[in-house]
Automatic annotation (TrEMBL):
<keyword id="KW-1133">Transmembrane helix</keyword>
<keyword id="KW-0472">Membrane</keyword>
<feature type="transmembrane region" description="Helical">
    <location>
        <begin position="356"/>
        <end position="377"/>
    </location>
</feature>
<feature type="domain" description="DUF112">
    <location>
        <begin position="20"/>
        <end position="437"/>
    </location>
</feature>
<feature type="transmembrane region" description="Helical">
    <location>
        <begin position="463"/>
        <end position="490"/>
    </location>
</feature>
<dbReference type="Pfam" id="PF01970">
    <property type="entry name" value="TctA"/>
</dbReference>
<feature type="transmembrane region" description="Helical">
    <location>
        <begin position="170"/>
        <end position="186"/>
    </location>
</feature>
<keyword id="KW-0812">Transmembrane</keyword>
<feature type="transmembrane region" description="Helical">
    <location>
        <begin position="20"/>
        <end position="49"/>
    </location>
</feature>
<feature type="transmembrane region" description="Helical">
    <location>
        <begin position="206"/>
        <end position="226"/>
    </location>
</feature>
<feature type="transmembrane region" description="Helical">
    <location>
        <begin position="314"/>
        <end position="336"/>
    </location>
</feature>
<feature type="transmembrane region" description="Helical">
    <location>
        <begin position="147"/>
        <end position="163"/>
    </location>
</feature>
<dbReference type="InterPro" id="IPR002823">
    <property type="entry name" value="DUF112_TM"/>
</dbReference>
<feature type="transmembrane region" description="Helical">
    <location>
        <begin position="389"/>
        <end position="407"/>
    </location>
</feature>
<feature type="transmembrane region" description="Helical">
    <location>
        <begin position="108"/>
        <end position="135"/>
    </location>
</feature>
<protein>
    <submittedName>
        <fullName>Tripartite tricarboxylate transporter permease</fullName>
    </submittedName>
</protein>
Length: 496
């Protein structure tokens, strides 16, 4: 079957009443959590992982994908109305969007964000549809040496890009690798890092670690910082665009999409870089430079399109080579594994119907998000009036219930609290959490593939650089490491 037939089969499955319901639930929850500052899609997916154990894999993944896309949409609302990004990728939208809201143009800012998100999300999903099978076909020839090199690229890029500096990213990665080693060695049967505690012999459930590092650490951090509050800018008008605003917005949507999807598809991609690039491009190309810094609509349209196109792009390395390039993608990788699925080149061959149903549901979810965001923006704005203490009390309750559902023992709750405190210390020290999750998930896979490679070569490490693909991957890892080391020096030189 060719790609079109597979996609049509995916639509046939995605448009069933059950899957439509889960897509609607996902985008609704995603929009709500995107609106609420600090409650991002990564935390929400982590909290819902144990709750969805009774769902079939396709329904659960459609739900999580809806939360992911919805979170990207909803983050613009809180950026524009509160000047408080719900997601890091929504930071740039706050620069011009909040100034538009303060000048009485909140409706126009929200409209260009919603329409730009729809256009970029749809084009990005089309790119995912055609690019993902090509990448997966290429990666099917990977053997153990190629996978070891690919894991090295993942470790270096995630450590360098998902944190304030390389050292803190590596510290987080090593923490995750250490947690992933807890339990019994699958080859030798020897216990590792259990310290005589019998419940740890089975290892630490990935779901518990994700809930602790994201949910508990976030809630504990807000307890220490206090709750506080802000004044919400009201939305007085209908969320529509005038002809003049539309003429200025649509080129920015296309330029933002052209930047967001390719960069988001790279192993070292993500959504933050293309949003900043898009803002810079719009500032240089605008015919209204005097408005930048005072509420230029292009400064909202371009970055929001880049943000949502990058969100679709992030799914390319996740689905095709099992490489997460954002915190939410790392948690979604956990969701795949909880259903016995390993994202990578074999996923399209072994679970093709599920993958194409998931991709088709992204098109459906984009339409649902447009319908939800334009008429119901006043409802989403009212969510910003919920006190922070109520939100995080609910997070703690759901975290405890989810952990109990995942393991069902007192030891799991103790591990949850211990890892939650570790996550709080990481948060206070400015150490990013996402590399720890990536290390936890990919560390055992890298160890397994390294052992296989050395077994094939009878202990000769030269097998790790024995093919052109491994050479290219090790070169990419070295370049990413060099770039991360040189970036602070270049920034300091530029400031001087």
């Amino acid at each position: 079957m060719n790609g079109w037939e597979l996609l049509l089969d995916g639509f046939a499955a995605a448009l069933t009443p059950g899957h439509l319901l889960w897509a609607l639930v996902g985008v609704t929850i995603g929009t709500a959590v995107g609106v609420l500052p600090g409650i991002g899609p990564a935390l929400t997916v982590a909290l819902l992982l144990p709750v969805t154990f009774r769902l079939d894999a396709s329904s659960a993944l459609i739900l999580f994908a809806g939360i992911y896309y919805g979170g990207m949409y909803g983050g613009s609302t809180t950026s524009i109305l509160l000047n408080t990004p719900g997601e890091s990728a929504s930071m740039v939208s706050a620069l011009e969007g909040h100034r538009m809201a303060r000048s009485g143009r909140a409706a126009a800012a929200l409209a260009t964000a919603a329409l730009g998100s729809f256009v970029a999300g749809t084009i990005g999903t089309i790119g995912l549809t055609f690019l993902a099978p090509v990448v997966a076909d290429f990666a099917t020839g990977f053997g153990p040496p190629e996978y070891v090199a690919l894991m090295a690229v993942a470790f270096v890029t995630v450590s360098a890009l998902l944190g304030p500096d390389l050292l803190k990213g590596i510290a987080s990665l090593v923490t995750g690798l250490a947690v992933g080693l807890v339990g019994i060695d699958s080859q030798t049967g020897a216990p590792r890092l259990v310290f005589g505690v019998d419940p740890l012999l089975d290892g630490i459930d990935v779901v518990i670690v994700v809930i602790a590092l994201f949910a508990l650490a976030e809630a504990f951090g807000h307890v220490l910082a206090g709750t506080g509050g802000s004044t919400v800018e009201p939305v007085r008008d209908r969320v529509v665009l005038s002809r003049a605003d539309l003429r200025r917005s649509w080129p920015a949507w296309l330029r933002g999409t052209a930047l967001g999807f390719p960069i988001g598809s790279l192993p070292a991609g993500g959504a933050e870089v293309p949003t900043f690039l898009s803002y810079s491009v719009e500032k240089k190309l605008t015919r209204h430079p005097e408005e930048f810094g005072h509420g230029a609509i292009e400064g909202v349209a371009g970055p929001e399109a880049a943000n949502n196109a990058a969100s679709a792009g992030v799914l390319v390395p996740l689905l095709t080579i099992g490489l997460p390039t954002s915190a939410t993608a790392a948690v979604m990788l956990t969701a795949f594994q909880s259903y016995g699925l390993q994202p990578g080149p074999q996923l399209f061959e072994e679970s093709g119907p599920l993958v194409w149903t998931l991709i088709a549901s992204l098109y459906v979810g984009n339409v649902m998000l447009l319908v939800l965001n334009l008429p119901l923006v006043r409802l989403w704005a009212r969510l910003l009036t919920i006190p922070a203490y109520g939100i995080y009390a609910g997070v703690l309750v759901f975290a405890a219930l989810g952990t109990w559902a995942a393991g069902g023992t007192t030891a799991d709750l103790l591990v949850l609290c211990g890892l939650g405190l570790l996550g709080l210390l990481m948060r206070q020290a400015g150490v990013p959490v996402a590399p720890a999750v990536v290390g936890l998930i990919l560390g055992p896979i890298a160890e397994q593939q390294l052992r296989r490679a050395l077994t094939l070569s009878e202990g000769d490490p030269a097998i790790l650089i024995s093919s052109p693909v491994t050479g290219v991957l090790w070169a990419v890892a070295a370049l990413a490491l060099a770039a991360a080391l040189l970036a602070p020096v270049l920034r300091r030189t530029r400031r001087e």
